[in-house]
Design goal:
This protein has 84 residues and is mostly loops. It has a domain at 18-55. The protein is 11% helix and 11% strand. It is built from 1 helix and 3 strands, in the order βββα. The chain has a 3-stranded antiparallel beta sheet with strand order 1-2-3, with no helix packed on it. Strand 2 and strand 3 (41-43) form a beta hairpin. The protein starts with 23 loop residues before the first strand and ends in a 29-residue tail after the last helix.
């Protein structure tokens, strides 16, 4: 019998900000203006809230949009850039 590390999905202890996630979409439906491409849901609230209400766990599919770091924040300015 081989022992090793078990692979567990990392479930965050707080709801991610869907607005900073690359899977978040805005819909044209006034009654369901927000959507998540991963879960295939449309809702009035943030999709991460709907995931928590239905599954009892926070969303684990968060991926920062391009241009944002792993926390979903814009990268910090190093101060050596040139403003045009």
């Amino acid at each position: 019998m081989k022992t090793g590390k078990t692979l567990e999905a990392k479930i965050p202890d707080h709801a991610p900000d869907c607005l900073r996630c690359k899977h978040f979409e805005v819909t044209w439906e006034p009654s369901f203006p927000r959507a998540c491409k991963i879960f295939g849901i449309k809702c009035r609230n943030q999709p991460s809230m709907e995931v928590f209400l239905s599954a009892g766990k926070h969303c684990f599919a968060f991926e920062a949009r391009e241009g944002l770091d792993e926390t979903g924040q814009p990268p910090t300015d190093s101060g050596d850039g040139i403003w045009a």
